[in-house]
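Q: How would the structure tokens look for this protein?
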Amino acid sequence: MKPVSIPSRRRMLAAATLLASAGAVVALSAFAGGDNAARIVPPLSTAQPASTATTETAVLAGGCFWGVQAVFQHVKGVTGAVSGYAGGEADTAVYEAVGTGSTGHAEAVQVSYDPKVVSYARILQIYFSVAHDPTQLNRQGPDTGTQYRSAVFPLNDDQARVAKAYIAQLDQARTFKSALVTRVEPGRRFFPAEAYHQDFLARNPRHPYIVFNDLPKLDDLKRLFPEAWRADPVLVGKALAS
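A: Here is the predicted structure in token form.
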């Protein structure tokens, strides 16, 4: 998600303003590809050691973290979703630096969940089905750069195994028209983003970028995974207020 000064973002905001001022009604899918989303098959390899933990964590990157965070905030069993950065070092985990594309970081979301309600396999299924397009290399929609790459940051060997096997499964089945470009990057720390990035969709549902790029993802989640849909999102709130 680039600042409004970036040309691609500026063009989108300008178009949104023009359409709104003209009273135009636009299908969201024309901008965000909502009609192209589909519920893909779940991972075949899901075996993980039995856990008595009440909370487990996944870290995923798929373009602008505003939309990815919002998707998982509406998934039953998710107890928290925090926007942030993963892939680089602590001293460059700052929005302005990450935006240059030179830090190694990706905009990522740390998803905490109750494994008795939602599994890591289901988290990945939703991630690949509606949270982002895993065939876009170093970009998502209008946003370009390695900071918008598709990446899974496994926190243990089991998560890495399941993620790698799932990517291979989807490619072998030719689930998507193009090969997946999702990277599996173990051993990377997650750093929370600035407070003003948290709960961005919930706080700014009429922001043009949100309207055209992220609200369709929530529609897709509700349509494709009705059993996992939660109407009231779990929000970060003031926990990370600076």
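DSSP finds eight helices and eight strands in the chain.

The two ends are 21 Å apart (CA to CA).

Upvote if useful.
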